[in-house]
Specification:
This protein has about 525 residues and is mainly alpha-helical. The chain is built from 19 helices and no strands. Helix 3 packs antiparallel against helix 11, helix 12 packs across helix 15 (about 360-390) and helix 14 runs antiparallel to helix 15 (about 360-390).
């Protein structure tokens, strides 16, 4: 889906079940336990099967192929819409920023109720309907251009409605993935999905810019037709059937929304990541909203060069996704997050130095560093949230945190547009990029710098204390997994090999946007 770049219920498993699908999940996975959740054993990747996840898990392979195609089309769209606005409709800097904001505004408008509906309904049908809606919406742009009726208002409406479809898709997708994968496979699955999303984004940006230069930016949207159809076909082909929901009385929408918000507010880990995601996305989106205008009008490069530059810089996302598990295994998930989110995205401060010729290297270095750090951090955070959150609240938690994370995106785009109009594009870009490392200070001021690894179990009730879980608390005060010790029950182990270190509680824990 274009809006959030940042995932079948009753017991209707087909006759024959997993035995008829030899490449399905290993015996003893979530499908074999009521509710599809892991038992209380330590969660590590040490017991993963030697074969790669894509080879041995057909359903994940179908999801991965469909999402890779979807992300390719979304990358083309993300570049094509502002190019259409700038090159075809001659939009102003503020109008381009409004276009960027429109795609994310639905998170503020419908994000919270979407989380409740996802927890009530089956996830896969929601994903299918959302993808089909986006396909039809984006198809109207080249049709309107062919009829000579394309306007900026049309683009804004398409971005807004496709963004609404993206809210439902992303919320359902986030709740669906942990049901599809065993806990030991989730970190590998997240790494593969984030890595392929980065690779698809690179291909989409590069080809989208080339198509825009050779055939016009409107024709770049035609690639969406095939990619959305591929995503629909692959999602339909997934054989997994979600476990039955536990029977509980249907409550008022406001009450269920409040439960997700209380969970977000009461837990120090969820609260930290949500606040950081909101601040980070505000400034990341701000500079990205100015980027096309900056490169074309200030630096003076062509549309095709814009796509090529963004594609090359985005290779950092592939590197980050591939390295995330190893970095987390070596440093611990909490320490890895600090390194990845504090150091690498800070390179965005180099981007306003970009100029012609060799000066383009400033953008490449800054964009590569930001993409690498943000995507690697997203892999770790996604695995943490899937393991740590109670399964019956995952949809509401995802939506509640996404309202903060993605709700700040339209604000960032609007702020950048106003600053670009009043101060000029390059000064506004300076303000936005300097804000990227400042946003990461939220992580430094949290309990993350006192622990090695993020926890996997939330012991407190939804309305309870925000205190750290016992294992994480022991780590915070210097408690006691010995050097080389096995990961304990409360830690997230991301990646293979030894995770627990001396003095730590065990176990690990576009330029890309922060998934929070």
């Amino acid at each position: 889906m274009t809006a959030p770049a940042s995932a079948d219920r009753p017991d209707d498993r087909p006759a024959g079940g997993p035995a008829d699908r030899p490449d399905d999940r290993p015996a003893g996975g979530p499908a074999d336990r009521p509710g599809g959740r892991p038992d209380d054993r330590p969660v590590t990747d040490a017991g993963a099967a030697p074969a790669g996840l894509l080879r041995r898990h057909r359903d994940f392979r179908m999801l991965w192929v469909g999402e890779t195609g979807n992300k390719y089309g979304s990358a083309v769209t993300g570049l094509a819409l502002p190019l259409i606005a700038v090159s075809t409709l001659h939009a102003s800097t503020l109008q381009v920023a409004l276009l960027g904001a429109a795609g994310w505004l639905p998170w503020l408008l419908i994000g919270l109720p979407a989380g409740v509906w996802v927890d009530r309904l089956r996830c896969r049908p929601i994903m299918l309907v959302s993808t089909a809606a986006s396909l039809l919406l984006y198809a109207t742009v080249p049709l309107a251009a062919l009829a000579g009726a394309l306007t900026l208002w049309h683009l804004l409406a398409v971005a807004l409605l496709a963004g609404a479809a993206g809210v439902f898709f992303q919320t359902a997708y986030t709740a669906y993935l942990p049901q599809l994968l065993d806990p030991a496979d989730q970190s590998e699955g997240n790494a593969k999905l984030h890595g392929s999303a980065s690779a698809a984004g690179i291909a989409g940006l590069g080809s989208g810019g080339l198509i825009a230069q050779l055939a016009g930016p409107v024709n770049g949207l035609l690639a969406n037709t095939a990619t959305f159809l591929l995503s629909l076909w692959c999602t339909v082909r997934i054989g997994h059937r979600e476990p039955a929901r536990s029977e509980r009385p249907r409550r008022a929408l406001r009450q269920e929304i409040g439960e997700g918000l209380r969970l977000l507010a009461s837990d120090v880990w969820f609260r930290t990541f949500a606040l950081f995601g909101a601040a980070s996305n505000l400034v990341l989106t701000g500079y990205q909203s100015l980027l096309v205008v900056f490169l074309i009008r200030e630096v003076g490069v062509s549309e095709g060069t814009v796509g090529l530059l963004v594609a090359v810089a985005s290779t950092g996302g592939i590197v980050g996704a591939a390295a995330a598990r190893r970095i987390a295994a070596r440093l611990g998930t909490s320490r890895a997050m600090l390194v990845l989110e504090l150091a690498l995205p800070a390179l965005t401060v180099l981007i306003p130095l970009t100029g012609r010729g060799a000066g383009l290297a400033w953008y490449l270095v800054g964009g590569f560093g930001a993409s690498c750090g943000v995507v690697a951090g997203n892999v770790i955070k996604a695995t943490f949230q899937q393991r740590y959150c109670p399964p019956e609240l995952l949809g509401r938690l995802s939506a509640s945190s996404a309202v903060l994370n993605f709700g700040s995106i339209p604000l960032g785009a609007l702020l950048a547009g106003v600053l670009g109009t009043q101060l000029g594009v390059r000064p506004a870009l300076w303000l936005m990029t300097v804000g990227v490392p400042l946003a990461a200070l939220i992580l430094w001021c949290s309990p993350m710098r006192r622990v090695r690894d993020l926890p996997t179990e939330r012991r407190a009730p939804v309305g309870g204390s925000a205190a750290l879980p016992p294992v994480a608390m022991r780590a915070a005060v210097g408690g006691a997994a010995g050097k080389g010790g096995a990961p304990g029950k409360g830690g997230v182990a991301v990646g293979k090999g030894r995770v627990a270190g001396k003095g730590a509680a065990a176990g690990g824990g576009a330029c890309a946007l922060d998934a929070g």
